[in-house]
Every structure is written in C-alpha cells, then in structure tokens.
Amino acid sequence: MDEQLRQLENTFSARIEDLQVKIAFQDDFIESLNQMVASQQQTILALQKQMQVLYQRVESYQNGENGVEPFDPSQEIPPHY
C-alpha cells in the first residue's frame, strides 16, 4: 500500500510539474503577444496621424488655400500641343 501511495504521489508530482512548465510557457507567450499588440497599436496611431495630416493637406490644396490653384484636369493642356 505504501508503494502504491508513493507511485501515485510521483505521478501527481510529474503532472503538476508538467502543468507548471506549460503555464510558464503560456505566460511568456502571452507577454510577447501583449508587447506585439502594443507595438502595433502605436504604429496604427502614428499612421492615423499621418493620414489625418495628408487629408488636411489635400483639402487645403483642393480649396486653393496655399496660393496654388486647385488642379482641374479638364483645363489642363497636354504638353504636345
């Protein structure tokens, strides 16, 4: 009976160790994913700011606010004429 108890205890200890190792790997993986998502979020925010600036520039050019007439392709003469 004592031997069976020892074998059962060893089996449970091995299973607990396996679970602890799996949890440690999962924690590391989750942390790396978290860092990746945070980095991607910063990139997305930077890209959104750049797009906003570009939209503002396009709107200002279309409205002729920069001293430059808006581009009208129907009024543009091709260079070979």
From TrEMBL:
<dbReference type="Pfam" id="PF04102">
    <property type="entry name" value="SlyX"/>
</dbReference>
<protein>
    <recommendedName>
        <fullName>Protein SlyX homolog</fullName>
    </recommendedName>
</protein>
<comment type="similarity">
    <text>Belongs to the SlyX family.</text>
</comment>
<dbReference type="InterPro" id="IPR007236">
    <property type="entry name" value="SlyX"/>
</dbReference>
